[in-house]
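User: Okay, second chain of the day. Same drill as before: sequence in, structure tokens out.
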Amino acid sequence: MKKTIGEVLPEFEDQYQFSEVSASSPLGYIKSLKNNIHSAPTLLIDGRVVARTAISKTELINILTSEL
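Assistant: Same drill. Structure tokens below.
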């Protein structure tokens, strides 16, 4: 998913910012518990889970567009 985000995000750079959080870090562990995340990759937008699996570029574009 990280590669797909890297390819798609430049089209949305004014609207979205990407940050990666490792579930093995203290902050990542707390976020994963709080959001009921049990697998990677998981995509959150504004703290809300929008995808729990790897997605295609088209799917990501659709998600990002619908969230605007």
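The longest strand covers residues 48-51.

User: Thanks, on to the next one.
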